[in-house]
Amino acid sequence: MATLPRTSKLSNASPIHPPSVVASSLFDNPVPVPARPHSEFDSGINTSAAWTEHRQLHTGTGSLSDDEPDTDDEQQHGRPARALYVFEGKTEFRELSVDAGDEIEVLKEELADGWSLVKSADGEMGLLPRSYYTFTSDFIAAPEHASTQQHGRDASTSTITPAAPIVPQTTGEWRNAFPSFRHNLLGGKSLNRFSSFVTSGAEEWVLKGSAPTGDDGPHAGHAKEESAYTYDEDNRLSRLGMGEADRHFVDAGPAWKTKLPPFRVLVHSPSKRTSTLSGAYTVYSVTSLFHASSSIPEEGADPESEADYTPPNSPARITVHRRFSHFVVLHTALTRRLPGIALPPLPEKQYAGRFSTDFVEARRGDLERYIGRIVRHPVARYAEVVTFFLGCESDKEWSRQLPLHLSLPPAGPSFYAHVFHPAFNVDAEDATDAVARFETHTHAIGRGVQGLREIFGRVREARVEMSKAERLLSYSLLSLITSKPLASAPLTGIDEDDEDNGSTGKPTVGLLNEDGAWCWREGCEDCLVLTKALQKTSEGLQNVADLYDDHARRTQLATHEALKNVAHPSSMYESVIDTHKSTLSRYTEATRDGRADEEMAARCETVLNTTMAEMETYHTQKSEDFRAIATEHLDGEISFYEQVLTRLRAARNAFDTVPSPSPRQPSIYERELADPRLGAEPLPQPCPHVFDSAPMRPVSAAIQEGVGMLLGSAGREGRGSVFGKFW
C-alpha cells in the first residue's frame, strides 16, 4: 500500500499573514441577492462582462477574510464604478447602502452568490449585488480569466478583510429573525457554495503552507513535539500558557492527544432579566464540575494518568452567568479558531414565546448539551475562549476581555500549521477506505436515529394513552363499588329501562349500607373489608395513571431530547468528510509520477491526521452517547416500573390485611366521577434539531405570515407566529 511521504521543511515562500480584523455576522446564512429593480438612471455605459468564477464568502462563521496578498495594482486600488439602482444594505450582513448614480470603487468583484466588495466615496466598505453597479472605465474584451497563471490552483483561497470588528448578537433583536428563519426552512443547511476544504483554510495550507509567527517560530507541523504545560494563575480553568492552546497534537491512531482532562458542565437556574439596551432576556447559570484529584502529572508521565488531573488549588466547581448571545459569541469564536474541528451546531434563536416555561427549559437543555459536547472534545475544551467563557466570573473582566477574543483573526491555514503528529501516521489507501466507510456509517446512523426519534415519540404518546386507560379503569371500579354513575362511560349490553339509579326516581336503598360497604345488608364486615380493598385498588390505579403521564412528560422527554445528541452525524461531519476527500485528491496530484511534490504531500498528511483524528473522536463519542442514552432510558424504565409495582403491591396487600371496623371513608376520586379527568394536555415535544428538515413554503407566504404576526395580538404570541410553527 502506498504510504504518505516523510516530513520535510516548508518552502521559503513568503509567509501568509493572517488578517488583523474580520467582520462577522453571527448567523450561518448567506444573503440571497435581491432582484434588480427598474431604474430610470442611465450611466450611459454598457454593463461589464459577467463574472465567471466565484470567490470565497465565508458564511460558516459569517466572516470575511483575506489571506492572499494582492499583487495587481487594480485589485489594490479597486476599479471605478457607478451604482445603477438604490440599494438599502443591512449592517448586520456588512452590506453597503447606495443611491443610483453614486460613485463607488469595486475592490473584489467576484464573490459568492453574486456579491461584490465595494467602497463608497467616503471610504465605507461593504457588500453590494454585482448587478447593481457598472464599471465606468473603458471596457475591453474579457480575457480567458487572466487567472490561468494568477489563480491556478490558488484561485479559491482568495478572500477579503474589511477593517471592522465583529458585532456580538443582541438577544431579542428582530432584524436578525429572517436569516434564522431561512436557516430553519433549509433544514440547517447553508447556501454557501464553497466547500469546507476551501473555507477552513485547508486548501491554502496544502497548496502554500503557512509560517506561523510567535515565540515558537515557524513549525513544519509534521513531527510530533512535546509541549510544556504551564499554569496560568489568572485563569483557574486553564493550565495552558499563552499560545499553548493553539498547538494540537495527534497520537498514533490517529487520535487527538488529551491535554486537559474532561470535566462536566451544567446549565441550570434560568432567570429572566431586563436591560435598557436589549430589553428582556434570559440568563442561565453555567457550572463547571471538576474531578477531586489535585496531583499534577510529571513531565514525561503516561498520558493516561492525566485523566485524573485538576489544576492545583482549583475549586470543585465554578459558576458563571451567561445569556444566549454569549453562547453565540463562544460558537463564533470557536468556529473561527478551530476550522478543522467538527463543532456541534448551536441551537436556533427563538423570537416568539422565548420566555415561556417550556421553551426556557428546552433551551436550557439544548445549551447544556451543546457546551457538554464542546468540553468533551479533546481539542475544543482547552481553547482559550472556552476557558474564558467558563471561568470569567467578573462582568467587568468579561467586558474587557471579550473584544480581544472577538478581534482574533480566523485561524485558516495556521490551524493546520500548529498540528503536530508522528511521521507516516496515515496510509493513503487506508485513509481512502476509512472515509468511505465513515461516510456510509454516519448516513446510516442519521437515518436510523431519525426513525428512532419518531418511534420514541409514538411510545410517549402510547404512555399517555395508557395513563388515560388506567384512569378510566380506576373510575369504572370506583363507580361499581359506590353505585355512582361514571359520566360518558360506555354501557355496552345494558338497557336504559334496566337502570335503577337515582336519576330514574327509583329508590337507592340496597346499593350501599350505612357503613358505606358495597352490600345490601347492614353490618356486613366481609363486604366492608372488600369495599375498602377495592377502593384502595381504584386509588392505586389512579397513582399508576399519574406515573404513566409523568413518565412520558418528564423522564421520557429527557431521553427524547437526548436523542438529538446522536442525530444528523453526517451533517455535522460533512465538512470533515469533504476536507478529507479533497486532501486525498491533492495528495494524488502531489505524488503523481513526474510531478512529485514532497512538501505538498507532507502537508496533506497533516490535514489527513486532523480529519482522521476527528473521525476517531466521533467513534469514541458515539459509543459514549448511545451507551448513556440506552442506560438512562433503561434506568428510567426500571425506576418507573418499580414505582408502579410499589403502588400495585400496596393495593394487593389491602386484600390480605384486616382494616379497622370503622365505616368506609369516601374516596377523593368520587367527586370526579361526574367529570372524569380523561382529557390530558398535549404532550410536550423536544425542540427540533438544527439540521431537522422543515417543509419548504413560498417566501411570499412566509413573509405574509411574518407581517401578520407583527400586526397581530400580543396576547397570542407564538401561536400565529411564523417561527412558532417550527418550534
TrEMBL record:
PANTHER family: SORTING NEXIN
Biased composition (Polar residues): 1-14
Residue span of region Disordered: 1-80, 210-229, 295-314
Keyword line: SH3 domain
Record-level GO BP terms: endocytosis; endosomal transport; plasma membrane tubulation
Alphabetical list of PROSITE patterns matching this protein: PX (PS50195), SH3 (PS50002)
GO molecular function, one term: phosphatidylinositol binding
Gene3D superfamilies, A to Z: Arfaptin homology (AH) domain/BAR domain, Phox-like domain, SH3 Domains
Residue ranges with Basic and acidic residues bias: 216-229
Domain SH3 positions: 76-138
Gene Ontology CC: cytoplasmic vesicle; plasma membrane
Residue stretches in coiled coil: none
Statement: the UniProt record of this protein carries the keyword Lipid metabolism: no
Sequence ranges assigned to domain PX in this UniProt record: 262-396
InterPro entries (alphabetical): AH/BAR_dom_sf, PX_dom, PX_dom_sf, SH3-like_dom_sf, SH3_domain, Sorting_nexin_WASP-bd-dom
Protein name per the record: PX-domain-containing protein
Superkingdom: Eukaryota
Pfam families: BAR_3_WASP_bdg, PX, SH3_1
Species name: Plicaturopsis crispa FD-325 SS-3
